[in-house]
Amino acid sequence: MKIALACDHGGFRLKETIKAYLEELGIEYIDYGTYSEESVDYPDFAYKAAKGIVNGEADRGIFICGTGIGISIAANKVKGIRAALCYNVFSAEMSKRHNNANVLCLGGRILGEELAKAIVKVWLETPFDGGRHERRINKISEIEKLEE
Ligand code: RB5
Predict the structure, then answer these.
(1) Quick check: CB of 70 below 6 Å from ligand 1?
(2) Distance between CA 100 and CA 92 in Å, rounded?
(3) Is residue 105 flagged as an active site residue?
(4) Residue 125 CB burial class (10 angstroms; 0-12, 13-18, ≥19)
(5) How many CB atoms are closer than 10 A to CB 39?
(6) Is 10 in the pocket of ligand 1 (CB under 6 A)?
(7) CA of 60 to the centre of ligand 1 (A)
(8) Tens of pLDDT along 107-131?
(9) Which architecture characterizes domain 2-146 according to CATH?
(10) For residue range 90-109, what is the model confidence (pLDDT) as tens digits?
(11) Per-residue model confidence as pLDDT tens digits over 63-99
(12) What is d(CA 53, CA 59) in angstroms, rounded to the nearest whole number?
């Protein structure tokens, strides 16, 4: 499994923490930037990393901005991306079980390091429930086609 990482200046510090955590877990990643705390625009990084996922360079993503809101909105504009903004472990678990989210979004200015790592861990480990949830996800893909 390869993780696409993306952030803006508001998410940079937490992204560095998550990188170290993924290394600890032995999980590969591609860091699509940004690479410092200099002010940037989160849609640029959300788009690069989201395209990395839909093009198959990475399997899933963890995207971080100050609140996680902007970067999740931007990521969800890319066809095939289901980005879930999670502020706690329960929502991270459900974002996999029910929504099969392929991008986890975090708020670098909101979450403490340990909570963020716990969210990442459960999100990486929880499988998709399938069944009726598969039908609902397929309907999301149909909306993408209607919007083409
Ligand atoms: C940047 O200041 C901030 O707006 C951004 O990181 C994010 O929180 C947007 O949703």
Answers:
(1) yes
(2) 10
(3) no
(4) exposed
(5) 9
(6) yes
(7) 22
(8) 999 999 999 999 999 999 999 999 9
(9) 3-Layer(aba) Sandwich (3.40)
(10) 999 999 999 999 999 999 99
(11) 999 999 999 999 999 999 999 999 999 999 999 999 9
(12) 6
